Amino acid sequence: MSAVSLIFYLVFLIPLIGLLIWVMRQDKRKGKIGLYILAFIVIVGVWFMYFMTKGK
After folding, report:
1. DSSP 3-state helix, strand, coil percentages of the chain (rounded to 5)?
2. Which has the closest alpha carbon to 25: 16, 15, 35?
3. Per-residue DSSP letter, 11
4. For the whole model, what pTM was predicted?
5. Could you tell me if 35 and 25 are in contact, meaning their C-beta atoms sit under 8 angstroms apart?
6. Which of 11, 34, 37, 56 is most buried as measured by Cβ atoms within 10 A of its Cβ?
7. CB-based burial, 10-49: b 16+ in 10 Å, e otherwise
8. What is the dihedral sign for C-alpha 7, 9, 52, 2?
9. Alpha-carbon distance 28 to 40, whole Å?
10. CB 47 within 8 A of CB 39
11. Distances from the Cα of 5 to the Cαs of 18, 32, 38, 49, 56, in angstroms?
């Protein structure tokens, strides 16, 4: 993993996911559904990036 990828994860991705989790937990009615959707999106995104960069 390159330094640019690490900087992107540390500066943008991790705080964004933390903010989204915090916002979704504020909604008492649909908070769990939002967290499940967020987890699914993150897993699919990481999986897609792994397989797209694996061939290079």
Report:
1. 85, 0, 15
2. 35
3. I
4. 0.54
5. yes
6. 34
7. eeeeeeeeeebeeebeeeeeeeeebeeeeeeeeeeeeeee
8. positive
9. 20
10. no
11. 18, 29, 21, 11, 15
pLDDT in tens, 21-49: 787 777 777 667 777 877 888 888 878 87
Type of residue at 14: I
Q: DSSP secondary-structure letter at 29?
A: T
Which two three-digit tokens encode residue 44? 């699919």
Evaluate if residue 52 carries a pLDDT over 80: no
CA 31/CA 22 separation, integer angstroms = 9
Residue 20 token pair: 């989204």
